[in-house]
Description:
Elements (H helix, E strand, L loop, with lengths): L1 H23 L21 E2 L22 H4 L4 H8 L1 E7 L4 H15 L3 E6 L13 E7 L11 H12 L12 E8 L9 H12 L3 E2 L4 E4 L6 H28 L4 E4 L2 E4 L6 H14 L13 H28 L7 H9 L3 E3 L3 E4 L2 H7 L6 H6 L6 E5 L30 H17 L9 H7 L4 E4 L11 H10 L3 E6 L4 H6 L5 E6 L4 H8 L6 H13 L4 E8 L8 H11 L3 E6 L19 H12 L3 H6 E7 L4 E6 L3 E2 L2 E2 L2 E2 L1 H10 L9 E2 L33
Parallel strand pairs: 2-3, 2-4, 4-5, 5-6, 5-7, 12-13, 13-14, 14-15, 15-16, 16-17
Antiparallel strand pairs: 1-8, 8-9, 10-11, 11-12, 17-19, 18-19, 20-21, 22-23
Bound molecules: flavin mononucleotide and iron/sulfur cluster.
The site of iron/sulfur cluster has 11 residues, from loops.
Amino acid sequence: xxxxxxxxxxxxxxxxxxxxxxxxxxxxxxxxxxxxxxxxxxxxxxxxxxxxxxxxxxxxxxxxxxxxxxxxxxxxxxxxxxxxxxxxxxxxxxxxxxxxxxxxxxxxxxxxxxxxxxxxxxxxxxxxxxxxxxxxxxxxxxxxxxxxxxxxxxxxxxxxxxxxxxxxxxxxxxxxxxxxxxxxxxxxxxxxxxxxxxxxxxxxxxxxxxxxxxxxxxxxxxxxxxxxxxxxxxxxxxxxxxxxxxxxxxxxxxxxxxxxxxxxxxxxxxxxxxxxxxxxxxxxxxxxxxxxxxxxxxxxxxxxxxxxxxxxxxxxxxxxxxxxxxxxxxxxxxxxxxxxxxxxxxxxxxxxxxxxxxxxxxxxxxxxxxxxxxxxxxxxxxxxxxxxxxxxxxxxxxxxxxxxxxxxxxxxxxxxxxxxxxxxxxxxxxxxxxxxxxxxxxxxxxxxxxxxxxxxxxxxxxxxxxxxxxxxxxxxxxxxxxxxxxxxxxxxxxxxxxxxxxxxxxxxxxxxxxxxxxxxxxxxxxxxxxxxxxxxxxxxxxxxxxxxxxxxxxxxxxxxxxxxxxxxxxxxxxxxxxxxxxxxxxxxxxxxxxxxxxxxxxxxxxxxxxxxxxxxxxxxxxxxxxxxxxxxxxxxxxxxxxxxxxxxxxxxxxxxxxxxxxxxxxxxxxxxxxxxxxxxxxxxxxxxxxxxxxxxxxxxxxxxxx
Length: 706
Ligand SMILES: Cc1cc2nc3c(=O)[nH]c(=O)nc-3n(C[C@H](O)[C@H](O)[C@H](O)COP(=O)(O)O)c2cc1C
Ligand code: SF4
């Protein structure tokens, strides 16, 4: 019995010892692999032999191969080790390219510090390779609910599993040096850069060594990613110089490798303080042009003092920054946002507004037809100015044509431009664009002259116009110039709807019928987005003028919720319901929409009829009034607007301006006008004005906002 017990205990010791020894070898490709042979090892203290240098080793003098061999990976060969230290891998996780861009920027910076830096996408990176690297930088962004970008979910989950797997030794990455630069948007509050933060925790759990603390790049409004990158890289640079010193020091002291009960321990001989100072000074000189040499005679205490002074200087800078922030708000558009929006064709006005010419304005100038607002409400498309007084909004809708290079905000926290200046600048820019059409084929003298007077303003370009602090004055200025106002809000600011003065037509975007799908489609930044959405609908009901629900149908996303939409209609009782098929905005990594998600006009008509028939309330109050086949758009109107069998969805604009100027209360019915036959659903023209000439585009049109 005793003998069996003794043999059993020894065998157990051997198994534990071997497992722990193998676990400590970072190069081991499979961390949980069990040892097959145990008899070569002894429990007592032994000195391991230095690994023999591989003949074909990449770092052998004169050898041109780049391939790392077992010798290099062992981390025990000085030459190889030096080579490894100077090899940095930058791994990025990115959906729309921002993190990728910064990963390349980082690699360039590392190269200029003397490192061999290569960049890889985590989407294709083989996770097991991580254990073979010695210096790694992660540049990674964050998405909805703090999740990793779609492209690198696989790697993220793998690392997470590893870090929680009890079979993986806690020091599995103890030889891995790393730092993380997270990219996100601080508007997401607690979810700001969570992917990066979580990955940092995971690597810490497995004992990876930070070269520098995690850094953050805020891609939000009014800030620049570089503001976070610069101090982070400064830390990386300092950390690398420090770790080079440390590595060299360890190499020079040639630690004896000992095995104690299966654990490798490195015990460098202790250095005295003086020796340590000397060591530091020599290393600084070694670094040549990258680090300022410190005179030999300087003692450690002086160096420390210098460091402290430097820290104090940095603190002063921070204070100054805070003071400036406290004194004056920043501008909404940063330089990079300006560049990106200008590239997309926006004429930027002041610090937070934009104007862009709508393709229908051009089309009608050339006699090629008007937009659906011409069909449904009688605007003259060639006299319409499309603009927004706030390029920032509170959503990141999947169908947004800006592909999310846009500012977002939960409230106004930027410099505010004067409304008079904005209206003037918008009109001036719009007229400037109109002028360019003089002499273009199809543009007649009459149509050019007509277009030279703005009569309508579509406050629906992009962004959220309602959050502009002077929105009421802004709209009043438009009305004073006999310009009607069509304002679209994304249903996240009920209090602003409440305090809004009468506009010609007020829209609320109803992008989904349920909380779950609204979250998927609009990707709102507010946590209480659903309550805000419902609150906006209720606020709309209390408005006296024309109100509209704008539904954007996306096949496979939000077309199955007819009864939910009906409930929302009952809650808001809008005058009109516009139902439009989503416009395909082209390929974008920010949105997974494809042409399959775009409904045909017949599908939109079918949905519209089903909505009208869905509940007794809908049947009693709404009917399909108009269609504009070209835009894949259908209009449902409250039956109050069918007077003696004739639809009155058009607007009497002079009457509206008269009512708005009167300061008295008025209702939607007070400025309605009859709809022409060709605009009514079922007409042969399908909503196309017979006075215009049809023109078939060969290329699809990409671009849609709210
Ligand atoms: C739909 C969506 C959701 C987002 N969610 C978050 C988030 O939860 N936390 C965060 O910090 N940033 C969030 N962001 C901001 C992105 O991280 C930011 O735009 C980043 O620059 C994207 O980097 P990429 O281009 O490398 O993918 C989100 C962006 C979008 C479009
Ligand atoms: S579509 Fe409108 S609401 Fe949605 S993100 Fe774009 S601007 Fe904002």
